[in-house]
Amino acid sequence: MAKYSYTASVITALLSTAFSSNAFSEGNFTPFISASALTDSNIYRLDDSISESSLSEDTSKSDKLYRTTVGLNLDWTVSRQAFYVSGSLQDTRYEKNTQLDNLAKNLNARWNWLLGSRLTGIVSASQSIGLSNFEDTGVREKVERTISQLNASGNWRYHPDWQLGLAFRTLDIGYDSETRNVSDLKQLATSVNLDYLVKTGSRIGFKLENEVGEFPNRVNSLFFDDKYTQNSFLLTTFWNISGKSSFNSEFGYVSRSHPDITERDYEGLNATLRYNWAVTTKVNIFAEAFRRTASSEDILASYSENTGTKITAQWIPTDKITVSGLLSKETRDYTGQTGLIPGVDSTLEDRFINKTLSVKYEPHKNFDISLGYTDSSRESNGNLRDYTAEQYSLTLKINL
């Protein structure tokens, strides 16, 4: 795991910075443990035409899972600085597909920093290690995936009405299997923004971003390109409509270029629109619509053009009960394919629908019970890519 030590070093540095002040008593320390029982009707996200009887003896399309999680959450302040840390170990056992049993690890750290009255920003790092999803491959293989992220940003309010900002982020995705490490990805992005600030809390500005990506285990050929460069020119807005609602957006021109397979080059408009609405003190709604270019794990498509909508709602009928729901739809057009084989590798399109509903009951401040349901599906014009899956879950959580 040496190649991910940089992220771990940043997390350690954030922890050291906070604890060195001996101000931990000003924060909260909350260890927790939870136990979950789940059922999944399509573990491997197999095409609906594939029956249970066609699989090998040690493989089952549907299964029951038992998951135990231990972790902790910390938050505390040091003078005007705020620190947040969370970490967990999650042990998952399968009733039938025992070869998929795994231990997932997650660690997150964030520092909201403030220097004087004009300089603010965030430094964060995270690392998650766990079972790779089967959605993009359809391969019934246990593969561990590691995702490491670093983010740093700062804003200088050099004038009461103007703000200048810089940001830096990295993403590193790695797989422990030779059959999957062709999808390993490294990204480095830097951006600069200039915002005009309104006294009501709203703002409007411009952001320029450069992103460089590399697939370190791909070899350049007629079909594969191992790197790309993406530039974005975006108009950003935040509209503080009222104390109960807000709207923010990013809209602009994006271009992506490839040094060897220019057929994959792309330019077009990207947009993200988000709306938050606190309807009442007990009802909250969040809506999002987007059109964005995203890197793809498909070896024949280095990126996809994703268009979709998402709406989430939360209802708190009593102090002890919370009901949450989500509905999302997304279309992924794999325009990052080479186009060298007309009608075969230039028209792949996937359409996803996801619905979730959960109810949480909190009889005590240190104990809660959750019931959950998820219905997900994909329709595709590719062969053997259509699937449906249902999940039911019951979770008991105790804050120690």
Short note summarizing the structure:
The chain is mainly beta. 4% of the residues lie in helices and 62% in strands.
What are the defining features of this structure?
400 residues; mainly beta; 1 helix; 18 strands; 4% helix; globular
Topology of this structure?
Elements: H1 5-19, E1 28-40, E2 63-78, E3 81-94, E4 102-115, E5 119-131, E6 144-159, E7 162-175, E8 185-197, E9 203-214, E10 227-239, E11 245-257, E12 266-278, E13 283-295, E14 303-318, E15 321-333, E16 349-364, E17 367-380, E18 387-399
Antiparallel strand pairs: 1-2, 1-18, 2-3, 3-4, 4-5, 5-6, 6-7, 7-8, 8-9, 9-10, 10-11, 11-12, 12-13, 13-14, 14-15, 15-16, 16-17, 17-18
Written overview of the protein:
This protein is mainly β. It has one helix at residues 5-19; strands at 28-40, 63-78, 81-94, 102-115, 119-131, 144-159, 162-175, 185-197, 203-214, 227-239, 245-257, 266-278, 283-295, 303-318, 321-333, 349-364, 367-380, 387-399. The protein has an 18-stranded antiparallel barrel. The chain is globular.
DSSP strand content = over 45%
Number of strands: 18
Q: What is the 3D form? A: globular
Query: Biggest sheet, open or closed, and with what strands and sense?
Result: 18 strands, antiparallel, barrel
Taking the alpha carbons of the first and last residues, their distance comes to 31 Å
Low-confidence stretches: none
Q: Percent helix among the residues?
A: under 10%
Number of helices: 1
Structural class: mainly beta
Mean pLDDT: 89
Order of helices and strands: HEEEEEEEEEEEEEEEEEE
Using the CA coordinates, give the radius of gyration.
23 Å
